[in-house]
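Work Package 4 report. The design task specified in the project plan requires that, given a folded chain encoded as structure tokens, an amino acid be chosen for each position. We show below one input record used in the internal validation round.
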């Protein structure tokens, strides 16, 4: 068997290799009305996240005297799927809302904000499988954009079994027709898993392979997260420098005229 044929065996429905991520794009600071925000495109997924807080908890009986409260809301727009879905929250929305909180809480210094809340709102504009992982990844960037102190960024990625083979970052078709799905949220710097789920049946060896592959995927996503955060502050710094230069030029022009 030639090397070319071996490579072709690993190609998936969308042409990716078994260990290849979908095209990934992350932008930071996309909403002016939120304290922090992020936008992510992961494959055909398009998700926007807004973060508000820390702020006073309403209603007040939900506040905690010694720590802050992280509140999340995951919602899929009616036009995000085909066929069109109901705009009302579903059981799946409620589950992923809970999953987001579990994945992100270990990364945030909530003890610094007693009797306060940090609210994360995620809106899925277009869904293509793996939305929970993409949402957690974008939420982590939005938290940093809001200035929330964090132990580390949380990157999330799924691995699963499709057609008898372990593959990374399942798309919608692979998610619906695959044999297993293992989403993981991971803090690469601290080497800690904050979320581990499994849907389907795997052997112990396959499960370990899924975890190792997901962690490698999370590390790649982590680098994209860092670049998205850096890019925003580089742009802001450049804009401030341009403003200062323009002010200096204007002041010099006024002095020359006088």
């Amino acid at each position: 068997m030639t090397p070319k044929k071996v490579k072709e065996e690993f190609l998936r429905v969308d042409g990716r290799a078994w260990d290849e991520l979908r095209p990934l794009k992350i932008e930071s600071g996309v909403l002016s009305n939120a304290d922090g925000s992020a936008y992510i495109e992961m494959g055909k997924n398009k998700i926007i996240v807004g973060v508000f807080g820390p702020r006073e908890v309403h209603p007040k009986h939900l506040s905690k005297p010694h720590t802050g409260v992280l509140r999340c809301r995951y919602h899929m727009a009616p036009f995000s799927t085909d066929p069109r879905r109901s705009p009302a929250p579903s059981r799946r929305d409620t589950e992923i809302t809970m999953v987001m909180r579990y994945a992100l809480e270990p990364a945030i210094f909530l003890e610094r904000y007693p009797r306060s809340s940090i609210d994360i709102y995620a809106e899925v504009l277009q869904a293509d499988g793996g939305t929970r992982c993409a949402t957690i990844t974008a939420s982590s960037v939005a938290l940093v954009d809001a200035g929330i102190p964090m132990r580390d960024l949380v990157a999330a990625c799924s691995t699963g079994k499709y057609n008898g083979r372990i593959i990374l970052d399942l798309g919608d078709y692979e998610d619906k027709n695959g044999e297993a799905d293992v989403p993981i949220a991971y803090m690469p710097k601290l080497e800690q898993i904050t979320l581990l789920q499994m849907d389907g049946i795997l052997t112990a060896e396959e499960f370990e392979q899924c975890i190792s592959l997901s962690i490698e995927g999370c590390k790649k996503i982590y680098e994209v997260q860092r670049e998205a955060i850096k890019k925003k502050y580089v742009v802001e710094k450049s804009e401030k420098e341009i403003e200062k230069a323009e002010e200096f030029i204007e002041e010099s022009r006024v002095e020359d005229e006088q």
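DSSP finds five helices and ten strands in the chain. Validation will be extended to a larger panel in the next phase.
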